[in-house]
Amino acid sequence: MKKILLASALLLALVAGVVFAQNYLKTKTLFLFKKNPTVTINGHKLQVTIADSQEKKQIGLSETKSLPQEKGMIFLFEKPDYYSFWMKNMKLPIDIIYINDDQIVTIQNNVQPIKEQESPIVYTSTEPSDKVLEINAGLAEKYDFKKGDKVKYENLSN
Fold first, then answer.
1. Strands laid side by side in the 129-136 sheet
2. Rounded CA gap, 140 and 110, in Å?
3. Nearest to 76 by CA among 104, 52, 102
């Protein structure tokens, strides 16, 4: 009986080791110690979800029914360009913040979801951007975010 318990414990330890090793190889960090990605502007730290694949960029926050105050989504692009956004299937209003070279270049404040019968409005930046941050509507104004503000990032790499 002791041999069976010992063998079971060793097998469990081996499986746990394989899971930890696979996770580490994928993320270069143990999931127990993985830090959330954040964006900081004017001393205000926001936890963000990263939209770094085409599918994530297409869906964006459209499946989100509510967004906690200090959370958002950041869209990462390989090169600066004029990226367009619309509110198709959105359920909540947002601020859209366009960023290039780690500073704000354009802010679209209080962008509202569209009603079924309305034609979608396409929002774009006045200058090329390489990142776009979506946060709760009104936060950019509340925190006095403006063009030229510096943006800092933590843990954005996968």
1. 103-111, 94-100, 129-136, 71-81, 44-51, 38-41, 151-154
2. 9
3. 52
* Dist CA 19 CA 121 (whole Å): 46
Q: State how far Cα 97 lies from the chain centre.
A: 12
Q: Which residue has the tokens 């009986």?
A: 1
Nearest-angstrom CA–CA distance, 118 and 140: 26
3-state secondary structure of 57: helix
Task: Tell me the pLDDT tens digit for each residue of 13-41.
Answer: 665 555 555 555 554 445 555 679 999 99
H helix runs in the chain, sequence order:
2-27, 54-59, 139-142
The pTM assigned to this predicted structure is: 0.77
